[in-house]
Model the fold of this input.
Amino acid sequence: MSKTAFAIAAHPDDVEFAMAGTLLLLGQSGYELHYMTVANGSCGSATMSRQVTIDTRSREAKEASAVLGAVYHEPLVDDLMIYYTPPLVAKLCAIIRQVRPTILLVPSPVDYMEDHTNTSRLAVTAAFCRNMPNFPTDPPAPVTETEVAVYHAAPVWLRDQVGNRVRPQFCVDVSSVLQEKRRALACHRSQKEWLDVSQGQDSYLKMMEDLCAEVGRLVDRPYAESWFRHLPPGFCGESFDPLAESLGKLVTKLP
Done:
């Protein structure tokens, strides 16, 4: 059976910040990689028009997905239009049925903005419905019985939406792929250049590295990404944990 890892995030550059290191490691271990943001980045500029912003950020996301070696999937809605609605679940479920992921990487169910948390909910429901023939997708797609293990990235800054500290279940040592993760994030030049002007040269890339270093300190590694495993019922068997099995000693569980 082919092995596929699918990273679904809210906005262009979210995958690179929170998930790209783990995704790269899965690619090295033989997984086919897929990349998607539910929103198109339309609000990601204070100087460009909406359409120019969408075109720019879509181009950057495609470049980043190529750096990661991942198949790119087009976004579905504008920024701040990610709502937990049946039509959006139906569209996302169609994509999941087509990709048939073994591993699904999604945002945290708790985070500082609702585009992130709504993406988490949408992806979880879409994966849950992947094998239900009475759930219609848009466009229609045949069901898949493939087991899928769902993993949530920890929230930005390891805090929930009201500032409570969040302790991840496990961390993945991404030190060996940090430079590739950095190169993928640097593809999002429209965001990097804006922050370079407002906050200092390479602040965008430094922020990512600082976050990975903070997580790394939890497990005594230089750089790491933090994760939670979604409960298996409806998705896979209790013992089905392909991320841990594939990455082995790079995974450290926290007490």
